[in-house]
Amino acid sequence: MKKLFSLFSVLVLLISSCSDDGGASSDSGFNINGTKLKRATANFGATGNTTQDYYYDGNKLTRMVSSDGSYFKYTYTGELITKIEFFQNNVLEEVNFLEYNNDNELIARKQIRGNTGYKVVYTYNNDGTISISAYTGDSVNQDTPTDLNKKVFFENGLVSKIESYMFIDGNLETLSTNYTYDSANAPTSLILGYDKLAFYDQGNFQNIHNVTTITYASSVNDVVDVDEMVNVYNTDNFLSKATAVDPRDNNGPSLIFEYFYE
What we know:
It is built from 1 helix and 16 strands. By secondary structure, the chain is mainly beta. The longest helix is centred in the N-terminal third of the chain and has 14 residues, at 2-15.
């Protein structure tokens, strides 16, 4: 369940945002039914709750505001998200620049925080997979390789598996995370450009359908763990509630996510 908590923390991070002037207000009302995501809540049990409100210009996400007052501001070039700024206490803390190729595929993400920089590179392989590597440096140049080494696999256009390769105690270990999905609409599936971020960071939450199981495995220790999502849908076939279940962690906190629409 700790792994699931970590992954959904990434979800909360990536999709939080508030509104630019002239953007539609999330205060226009929250409904279980509908198709435009306006609010997402996460209940992490004893560790607390969080809420994110979404604001738009048409179907372009402009900002997402979290209940702690922090927010992300999104900038588009055409129909692609090309910049994501993170603000805390109304102070700009971090900027992510997104780069695409001529096929509108994400090829790089450059993160600038103060005087430090971090760049993630996505390489499209002939077998349909995507390799991920990263580099560190200053705010201008990022050319020092890190040990990040991942590969993303797809099935029917959805991320089916993410493999991470690392040396542990001198042995090369492959950590794999496998995903299955339902056929319903994900809460963020109608946000313009969001489908390009399906492998943006650690998690895998920008696909057009909803995760139903997450299976973790290790090539060295033969460790296998499965987390399940119990999903509930609204009348428009969009996810309205997801409850995380870990059959191996009976005493773990319940993780409940709810989505409200316009």
